[in-house]
Amino acid sequence: MNDLVLDTGRAVSFLSRLPVSDRFFVDESVPVVRSARAYALAGAVIALPAALVLLILVALGLNAFFAGALVLSCHVLVTGALHEDGLADCGDGFGGGSGRDRVLEIMKDSTIGAYGGIALILSLLLRVSGVAVLAAETAPLAAALALVGVASVSRAAMVWHWRSLPAAKSDGVAASIGQPDDDATRFAMISGALLGFVLAVPAIGPGGALFSLVLVAAACLAFTRFTGDRIGGHTGDTIGACQQICEVAALLGLALWL
To answer: What integer is the mean pLDDT of 225-232?
Structure first.
């Protein structure tokens, strides 16, 4: 099996609840971190069910905001709220912790607090609103394609965040997995940018697609720097939170241009 196809299947399995054939896991010697290069490609696959729902609902003329809520519900079910969990933990940790150790301690606690709840509410509201703008202002197919592009570029941003910072905890899950190498990071970023750009063009044109990518890059850089300043590295939670923040940034770019 082609290595890139293998990595994409593994990435889809890791980042979602979509069923993946056992043949993608026959070679147990392949490190988990290698599949990071395919995160943008996996994001496109993972977003397909939600994109199909969006295409159908917009074509049927359903209210745009209601359609956005249903589309996002579909997407969260497919991903198992993996990244939302990371965002909530980061919200609680960064919002309630006064020092590095306390932030990490709070993030490890599975109990959700006020800061985490607010972060989730804002993320869901902003993303539903962004999808609603697409549904209301663009053709059904263009809206569906743009949604797939957003999923791709936001997951590519995760890889950049992951690579840019050391593991914040030497005994954490992120540390045990390792980090993507430069080649994997470069491939993820290029493929994510290309998919994000090309798939957004039918909805908002090349200028709008580029504007959306710039916002994603700015959001990723800002959150990565903030995370490095607060806890000195990345965790699995910050990687997931980065995806959520960059997804909001991508949708904001689309909405502002429309």
So the answer is: 96
For the chain, what is the radius of gyration of the CA atoms? 18
Whether the predicted pLDDT of 168 surpasses 90: yes
| Nearest of 252, 243, 246, 247 to residue 85 by alpha carbon | 243
Instruction: With a cut of 80, say whether residue 32 has pLDDT above it.
Output: no
How would residue 186 be classed by pLDDT, with cut points 50, 70 and 90?
Answer: very high
CA neighbours within 13 Å on the CB side: how many for 232?
9
CB atoms within 10 A of CB 62: 15
For residue 78, pLDDT beyond 70:
yes
Residue 1 has pLDDT above 60, yes or no: no
